[in-house]
Amino acid sequence: MNVLTQAASHTSLKIERVDTFILQLPLADQTFYSSQAAFPIRNSLLVRITAEGGLVGWGEGGQYGPAEPVAACIDHVLAPKILGKPVSSPIKTSEELYAFSRDFGQKGTYVEALSAIDIALWDLWGQVLGVPVSELLGGAFRSEVTAYATGCYYPESFKNYDALLEALEAEASTYASAGFSALKVKIGLLSVEQDAERLAVVRNAIGPDKKILVDANHAYNAATAIRMARELERFDVRFFEEPVVPEDRAGYRRVRDATDVPIAGGEAEFTRFGFRDLFVGECIDIAQPDVCCCGGFSEYLKIQALASTFGVRVIPHVWGSGVAVAAALQAIATIPPLPHTANPVALQNEPVVEYDRKHNPLRDDLLESNFSLKDGRLAVPTGPGLGVTVDEDVLNKFAKKVSK
């Protein structure tokens, strides 16, 4: 078979079936809190798309809330529309699915479902061609990515303030000794003054050279967020994530105008249209699209391009299983330094990847070869597609429901 014939056979390969897997894992005595709620379980949704001949691609969505609605969108609405479609056109398929569902699904559940399908299609197309998704997206600028530790959540006993501070100091110290150069601390469940004291404990524990990031999970109104931002300046905080609710564009702008701390947001935003509004409104310095929620790789490409025209850095949000981490790494690998210099590391223009440090077997046990940190960095998978293989025995152990 010559090259042209082989290429033609690839492009004619069709989608044969779509399966969804609702994953749920209770955390028992390891429950933790953000400003919004307790996290007593790990949950997500995986989609497996199988092509003619048995080759499969994996995608993820449904990590934020219950996975059942996302699975229903895929099983009953979107999957029937892609059966028999070519695997070689993920962007075309994504555009067609969004055009079909935009009247009732511009944000939220439908876009999460579309994200999972899109990621699986890019993974599958990479499998067919034998190249990683980062190459399909245009090429990798880096082979490994610095990870920042997301931790310092609130424990169930957060009302026992003295014990909380003692545990916080020990936790932050472990991240510093593990080689992380940056740590993201959760704030917003306690008063501004108490959270400022927590940050003082963290800074003392990790020393002056490690970076502190904070995430309020939209706990504040603009006035309170500005008060908090003034406290953050004391600790050289490098970004303030979700200071106000995602709908409050004017509030974002007020906070950003009132502080030198870079403002980050976007994990609760969807598609290029939502991010366009954040950029035009001058709401954020750092965009945080989650590839598993914003529309998948096809939409991420457009968000990244828009961000670059506004001088906004992109640091994707990551939450979910090992599939989500693999997708994020493939996306982050393709981010150009912004702005470009001959030495982007020195000017801290390089993107980073979020690496949650709370108990997460969906990430740490799901893949046949799971991620491991080396000197505080994660390698970008180099295999075809996402570059990872789901261990289906482990998957079935975690699966609450399988739709076929």
How is this structure best described in words?
- The chain has 404 residues and is α/β, with parallel strands linked by helices.
- It has 14 helices and 16 strands.
- The strands form 3 sheets. Strands 6, 8, 9, 10, 11, 12, 13, 14 and 15 form a 9-stranded mixed sheet that branches. A 4-stranded antiparallel sheet has the order 5-4-1-16, with helices on both faces. Strands 3-2-7 form a 3-stranded antiparallel sheet, with no helix packed on it.
- A hairpin with a 4-residue loop joins strand 2 and strand 3 (38-39).
- Helix 2 (68-82) packs across helix 4 (109-129), helix 4 crosses helix 11 and helix 7 (192-206) packs parallel to helix 8.
- Mean pLDDT is 93; it is low at 1-8.
Fold blueprint:
Elements: H1 3-11, E1 15-26, E2 32-33, E3 38-39, E4 41-51, E5 56-61, H2 68-82, H3 90-101, H4 109-129, H5 133-136, E6 144-151, E7 154-155, H6 161-177, E8 182-186, H7 192-206, E9 211-215, H8 222-234, E10 237-241, H9 249-258, E11 263-265, H10 271-280, E12 286-287, H11 296-309, E13 313-314, H12 322-333, E14 352-356, H13 361-364, E15 377-379, H14 392-398, E16 399-403
Parallel strand pairs: 6-8, 6-14, 8-9, 9-10, 10-11, 11-12, 12-13
Antiparallel strand pairs: 1-4, 1-16, 2-3, 2-7, 4-5, 6-15
Helix pairs in contact: 2-4, 3-4, 4-11, 6-7, 7-8, 8-9, 10-11
